[in-house]
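stage 2 :: seqdesign
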């Protein structure tokens, strides 16, 4: 077997990252749980991103992780919008933990929110040199909800308006899991969904599945370590401006490479010394491709890709080049300058990468730039870009080359493009990914970027990812829920709002079920309840946590309604019974024989419902004062009479049930998830 090429080797040193995307409720967490169960001896770390105010998924995923250290949560925000900086922090956190435990992470799965646009998330792995130097995007997997896809595609957004998340998620996917095929009415409906997917993305592999059934899941080997992501495909088929993603010029710090000096504040990772370790080593960066990357010689870290292709250097301080570097160029400039410095230190004939020679190294752009030879520098930058084994470096070098060309030739200067570039190990990389005998990624990246520069040198206007009309309401409440009331609450809510409530989910404690922890999951009107894999732990306070995600949510009404679902003890002398047919509870006073369908006491002294907080209830809702004794309350003769009448005529019960309805099929405790 042929020895792997150095660039391949470098790529394999990087930890593969799988981005798990798919619309709200499509089945991402179900897939993740399957992956974690089927992973065997491989060590997989998880980064969870939840849109909702309360993080439910982390609790459900954590049960399947061997160690809770393997899970990092990015809460209450969408990873593609507000949290991109946090992506880097999350990866740093995983490294910190794995180093602390002395174990290697074989792969990382990043589950985005169901409302995430995967493009900027994927872009981060190319734009951020620290990430690019140690992680490679293995694939983007999109889980599609076969039942609701058409509805999500037709969300009324104009093609030129804000992005449709469901479309973006499918378009960027390398692998599409068409899930919930059991919920699609017939073959025609399935065919319609399939052709809609293919119209958006005709090159991704599509696997039909039913992820909540053991027999309906795709084999594990189709999911991870499959190296499916191709920048070239994205540039050619999905988004020619992918590598010009939206924060180059907008002043965001999200895409900034880690600092060239320890003084750069935006990359100070808070809190941990180990994080600062990353910072420190980042600051003193030891390798040419990723001046920002930790030293390859540092314990527990991996060598950066270009290190294997080029010369290690002693410092990565930014060069005093005569050309102003944009933020995106910093890594390449620093890399090139560092290489130049090493060479300078080595002196002519001193064993530098380019060997002896009085002139500037023709393969070192900064060396050439430093002595003012723009032609040589531009050529060298192009060569370096073609040889760079990660996209971020290639991209930065190409931009640098353009800048150098522009410096000499004015704004119209185009990247020079020789036919073939000498490559590491004498391998020649033609300027067409299709011609490249190895079909290697660096050719694809370099070519893609060149094509992109030629096609459209200007950035398009950024398309909005507009979530302004979508919100989430998170509610936490202590104390077990009253099963019947909760069923009523959900049933009435969904009867009215199912279209707008994209997603609801929660973990519940229910009166009468001991330590059983219930999970409830809703996607539009499809809702199911069932026991979680693990009961409430003895040391765990059973706090109900639910989250609603949707359009035009009435926060106050949702919280108020949920509050009435909390079970409270009956006053002395009252017993609760259940109608065997409807499961509706009724109450009988032991001494007087009085019977009522209305709960004798409405007070909820133990309810602690909060809004917005993720971990701890921070704000108590005002408590209502309610009569404490059944005789004091307004059960009233009419209600009592109606209750009695209902004994003979069950239909009449509808008039006195709290929600005026009867429990639905699939109600809590009667259906399983
Ligand atoms: N009928 C059916 N239900 C499924 C299938 N796969 C998953 N589900 C259910 O769909 C619901 C949502 O699944 P999740 O895995 O939580 O979906 P998700 O994409 O992670 O949801 P968000 O993170 O909220 O976007 C759960 O109740 C799952 O049990 C399937 O193949 N068929």
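stage 2 :: out
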């Amino acid at each position: 077997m042929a020895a792997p090429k150095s660039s391949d080797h470098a790529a394999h040193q990087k930890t593969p990252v799988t981005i798990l995307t798919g619309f709200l409720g499509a089945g991402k967490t179900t897939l993740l749980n399957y992956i974690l169960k089927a992973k065997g001896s491989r060590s997989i770390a998880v980064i969870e991103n939840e849109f909702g105010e309360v993080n439910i998924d982390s609790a459900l995923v954590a049960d399947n992780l061997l160690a809770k250290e393997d899970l990092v949560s990015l809460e209450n925000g969408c990873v593609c919008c507000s949290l991109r900086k946090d992506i880097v922090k999350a990866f740093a956190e995983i490294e910190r933990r794995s180093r602390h435990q002395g174990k290697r992470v074989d792969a990382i799965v990043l589950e985005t929110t169901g409302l995430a646009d995967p493009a900027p998330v994927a872009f981060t792995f190319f734009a951020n040199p620290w990430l690019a130097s140690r992680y490679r995007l293995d694939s983007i997997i999109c889980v599609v909800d076969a039942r609701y896809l058409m509805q999500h595609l037709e969300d009324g957004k104009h093609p030129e308006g804000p992005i449709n998340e469901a479309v973006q998620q499918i378009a960027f996917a390398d692998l599409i899991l068409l899930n919930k095929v059991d919920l699609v009415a017939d073959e025609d409906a399935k065919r319609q969904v399939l052709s809609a997917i293919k119209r958006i993305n005709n090159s991704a592999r599509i696997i039909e599945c039913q992820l909540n059934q053991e027999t309906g899941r795709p084999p594990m080997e189709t999911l991870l370590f499959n190296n499916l992501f191709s920048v070239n495909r994205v540039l050619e088929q999905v988004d020619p401006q992918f590598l010009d993603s939206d924060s180059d010029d907008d002043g965001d710090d999200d895409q900034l490479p880690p600092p060239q000096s320890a003084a750069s504040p935006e990359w100070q990772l808070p809190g941990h010394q180990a994080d600062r370790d990353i910072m420190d080593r980042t600051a003193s960066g030891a390798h040419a491709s990723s001046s920002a990357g930790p030293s390859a010689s540092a314990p527990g870290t991996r060598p950066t890709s270009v290190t294997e292709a080029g010369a290690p250097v002693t410092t990565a301080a930014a060069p005093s080049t005569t050309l102003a570097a944009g933020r995106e160029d910093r890594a390449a400039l620093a890399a090139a300058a560092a290489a130049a410095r090493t060479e300078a230190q080595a002196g002519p004939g001193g064993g530098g990468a380019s060997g002896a020679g009085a002139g500037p190294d023709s393969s070192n752009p900064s060396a050439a730039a430093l002595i003012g030879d723009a032609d040589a520098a531009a050529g060298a930058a192009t060569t370096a870009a073609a040889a760079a084994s990660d996209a971020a470096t290639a991209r930065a070098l190409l931009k640098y080359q353009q800048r150098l060309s522009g410096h000499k030739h004015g704004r119209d200067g185009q990247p020079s493009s020789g036919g073939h570039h000498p490559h590491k190990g004498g391998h020649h990389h033609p300027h067409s990914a299709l011609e490249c005998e190895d079909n290697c990624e660096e050719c694809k990246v370099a070519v893609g970027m060149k094509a992109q520069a030629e096609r459209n040198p200007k950035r398009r206007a950024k398309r909005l990812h507009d979530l302004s009309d979508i919100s989430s309401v998170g509610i936490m409440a202590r104390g077990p829920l009253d099963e019947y009331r909760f069923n009523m609450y959900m049933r009435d809510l969904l009867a009215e709002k199912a279209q707008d409530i994209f997603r609801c989910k929660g973990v519940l404690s229910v009166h009468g079920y001991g330590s059983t922890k219930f999970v409830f999951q809703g996607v539009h009107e499809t809702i199911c309840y069932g026991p979680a894999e693990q009961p409430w732990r003895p040391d765990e306070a059973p706090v109900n946590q639910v989250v609603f995600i949707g359009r035009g949510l009435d926060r106050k009404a949702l919280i108020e309604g949920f509050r009435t679902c909390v079970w409270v003890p009956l006053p002395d002398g009252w017993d609760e019974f259940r109608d065997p047919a409807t499961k509706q509870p009724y109450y009988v006073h032991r001494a007087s024989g009085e019977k009522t369908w209305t709960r004798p006491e409405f007070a909820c002294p133990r309810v602690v419902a909060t809004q917005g907080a993720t971990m701890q209830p921070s704000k108590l809702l005002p408590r209502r004062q309610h009569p404490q004794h059944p005789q004091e309350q307004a059960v009233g003769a009419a209600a009592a009479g109606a209750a009695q009448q209902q004994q003979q005529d069950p239909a009449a019960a509808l008039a006195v049930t709290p929600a005026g309805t009867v429990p639905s099929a699939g109600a809590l405790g009667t259906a399983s998830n």
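stage 3 :: structure notes
- The first strand starts at residue 15 and ends at 21.
- Residues 22, 24-30, 57, 114, 179-180, 182-183, 210-212, 503, 505, 521, 523, 528, 673 surround guanosine-5'-triphosphate (CB under 6 Å).
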